[in-house]
Amino acid sequence: MIFTSALFLFVFLPCVLLIYYCVPFKIKNYFLLFSSLCFYAYGEPKFVFVMMAIIIINYLAAMQIGKAKNKSLQKVYLYSAIALNVGNLCFFKYLNFAVSNIDLIFGNILPKTNISLPIGISFFTFQAMSYIIDVYRGEVLPQRNPFFLGLYISLFPQLIAGPIVRYQTIEKQITFREIYLDKFVQGIKRFLLGLSKKVMLANNLAIVSDMAFSQGKDLSVCFAWYGAAAYALQIYFDFSGYSDMAIGLGKLFGFEFLENFNYPYLSKSIGEFWRRWHISLGSWFRDYVYIPLGGSKVGRVKLIRNLFIVWFLTGVWHGANWTFILWGLAYFVILTFEKLTQIPKRLESKLSKRLYSCFTLVFIMIAFVLFRSNGINEFIIYIKAMLCMNGNVFLDNTFLRFFGEYKLFLVFAVFSAFAGVKMIKTYMTSRIVNKQAIEVIIFVIYVPLFLINISYIIIGSYNPFIYFNF
Length: 470
Known about the structure:
The protein is mainly α. It has two domains: 6-177, no CATH class; 183-269 and 343-469, no CATH class. It is built from 18 helices and no strands. Helix 3 packs antiparallel against helix 4 (71-106) and helix 3 (48-67) packs parallel to helix 5 (121-137). The longest helix is centred in the N-terminal third of the chain and has 36 residues, at 71-106.
């Protein structure tokens, strides 16, 4: 089940909200856990047992860590739990990839595997590991109620595609959370914002990028750049839209999740980009991998080693494909360059800073071409098309047709991605003193947005979220 389906919007969510607000608070968590498991089971019933196994493993390990009287025994429980978590993730996500590559090198020495991937396994596995590590560090106490821990790991608003929520963020909210009208209204607004990003922008931009990436060597130069820009915007609005919907849904049930995006395309460097993009994943690797390895407070060789490990794992986390691994390593190279040279901090003139900002955007866009490509050969062909090295034409009718049909979506996407809408909202808020007038204006905007989104959904013009299989 996905957030942009009629089933979720008109059946599942209204029913869950209605019952949730009718039952006593002491029952709410149990009902929400049951609802989350039903939400996950709708698409893949058998994989609910995988999630339940993760919940049980981490619950038992955390309880044993809490009871253990010495650090050595705590480490045994911690490392055992991490091994089981990582082993489970590797089995479902990477075994097919490993077997196919071994057979490719050594010649079909292993039997073929066809293991299905549980949706969202990377997200809920990382949440479970952050919990067990924080318990070991003494930053949180073990959750004694297994159903409450199950709720934390399986909570449906952020279950499928994040953000990766830390247990310490919602530890107190699990046992007590405020539910009031203003928060509920904020949740609806945030959900509609994310729904609009996904349905109106990401899905229309997907039509452009899908066509561009399907052209092969016939792709014109203009369409190659147009498609690359469309995909960079598509993945941003797709993923940030889901995060907005997750944060909004959390508010409807009284939870407060941390932000996951902060206008990443405004970044002036690659390092800044990763402080603004998928914040929950970046902070996870920072706190549980990079800093424990020594972070940047080490010698140059160890710094490079630390960056390599983090970005290799970041690439692997995104999927079992060489393109994801190379994508992660590309960021390792450029971030190592920025760390060692201290660029752009050393840039002084406005021109040099702006040029580096342009370089940052181009690098991100080309990196997303690698991310989007089904294989390395497809990436090479696409890059050659961008550089007019395939013998392809500069401009063709396909580009003109798609540009004519979708240029308004692209323009508005660029305007929104670079905080244009936010600036208008800030300007209006500062100029209009009457708060009631502001509320009326917002209502006038949100109602048509909702109706337009529903019309898109009813005619079936929505796509699965890009990050569902990560």
